[in-house]
Amino acid sequence: MKRTALLLIVLIVVAGCNNFEKIHSEALVIDTHTDTPMLMVNEWFDLSKRHSPPDFRVDIPRLKEGEVDAIFFALFTGQKERTTENYLAVYNLAHQMLDSTLTGISRNSDKVALATSSSGIEEISKKGKTAICLGMENGFPIAKDLSRIDEFYDLGVRYITLCHSSNNDICDSSTDPTGPEHNGVSEFGKEVITRMNQLGMIIDVSHISDDSFFDVIKYSKAPVIASHSSVRSICNHPRNLSDEMIKQLAQNGGVIQICILGMYIREADTTSTNYIKREELRKKYNNWQYANDDERKAAWAEYDSINRVFPVELPTVAEAVDHIDYVVNLVGIDHVGIGSDFDGGGGLADCRDVSEFPNITRELVNRGYSLKDIEKIWGGNFLRVFKEVEAVAAKNN
Ligand SMILES: [Zn+2]
Question: How far apart are CA 200 and CA 394, in angstroms?
């Protein structure tokens, strides 16, 4: 009898495992935010080789293991003082990251391909390859020149995160220590939104201030995404979206892609040595506004050393899925997805890199989400938004 019961348990567990693995394989898995192009610019970084966390979280062998169908590589530039010199430097850096990414794709054309449309993602995935899409995190490289939006669109960039940790010419940031500069989106920012709508470029509201967010919802003719943001009601961080923002995002037809970066999933213990040291570092590096690349490298090295010497326990997949549950309960299943922020700080205790994405699917299955629900969360919702953004542009032209 005991043996029969044990056998039954084993059978149930095995069936459960197969079920989540099958569901993960069937779903179109899309990660809408990684910062991998920062690594791609280094000659020594080879996308085809397996690297290891915590330093590297995305490469082709692990994209295959995690059965990732599409992934956004964001051209990230940190906000610096808005001088002529810095405008030029970040513009050049964005091009450098773009070139390195395109080279990496062409060198591995048997396994990955560039996708520049929603149908492109579907076609590439059907061929068994991973679609790499381009985003731009921080509109700083656009400077005050609208024609640069066209320029980057023509090169394949399909979303722009309007700003990063500090205010820029487009809008206010949620984390600028000096507070608001435009009280939302600037006059130039309105023109940026209009041009992005016309081209069919997705507007990304992650990192922008609450007032900027409400302005974007007001001005954009197309639905928008938060490519990597979590829920403020669970984890009170200005980078996360409030209930009101999530409701308006849903009304707009958009999607919040839950960011699996520790401090956006679980509130930091502000009394821990790790937190205190990191705050000291943030101040030392002027809210991450680096004067140059050497300074950025030095800051990252110090950041890593703090995490090594004073380690913090990372949140778990279960805690991240609490954010998904919350959005589903608030606005339904059609407005939530996942943006890992891998290679930009993202990572959970049990989802350290793209190869471990199936652990998220397992948790969703355990919580009773159906195949249809999981398909929406892993990519269906984002793809719907992408198609609507394309449709709005097509109507304009
Ligand atoms: Zn970010």
Answer: 8
Judged on CB neighbours under 10 Å (0-12, 13-18, 19+), 256 is buried
Residue for token pair 């998904």: 324
CA of residue 237 to ligand 1 center, whole Å? 13
Q: How far is the CA of 147 from the centre of ligand 1 (A)?
A: 24
Q: And the tokens for 270?
A: 């502000």
The whole-number pLDDT of residue 5 equals 67
Q: What's the gap in Å between 368 CA and the centre of ligand 1?
A: 30
Within 13 Å, how many C-alpha atoms sit on residue 159's CB side?
A: 33
Comparing CA positions, the residue from 382, 247, 267 lying closest to residue 327 is 247
- Which has more pLDDT, 269 or 157? 157
How far is the centre of ligand 1, averaged over its atoms, from the C-alpha of 390 (Å)?
24
Residues 115-138 have a mean pLDDT of: 98
Centre of ligand 1 to C-alpha 17, Å, is 33
Ligand 1 centroid distance, CA of 74 (Å):
9
CA of 382 to the centre of ligand 1 (A): 18
Ligand 1 center to 137 CA (angstroms): 7
Check: CB of residue 343 under 8 Å from CB of residue 58: yes
What is the C-alpha separation between 174 and 178, in angstroms, rounded? 11
Cα(207) to centroid(ligand 1), Å = 7
For residue 4, the model assigns a pLDDT of 67
Spacing, Cα 143 to ligand 1 middle (Å)? 19
Give residue 8's pLDDT band: very low, low, confident or very high (50, 70, 90): low
Mean pLDDT confidence for 161-172:
97
Nearest 5°: the CA angle 177, 183, 189 is: 105
What pLDDT is stored for residue 368 in this prediction?
Answer: 96
- End-to-end CA distance of the chain, in Å? 71
Query: Which tens digits make up the pLDDT trace of 180-199?
Result: 999 999 999 999 999 999 99
Determine the distance separating the centroid of ligand 1 and the alpha carbon of 325, expressed in angstroms. Answer: 22
The predicted-structure confidence for 272-309, as pLDDT tens digits, reads as follows 999 999 999 988 988 887 877 788 888 888 988 998 89
**Burial group, residue 49, by CB count within 10 angstroms (0-12, 13-18, 19+):** exposed
What is the Å distance from ligand 1's center to 138 Cα?
A: 9
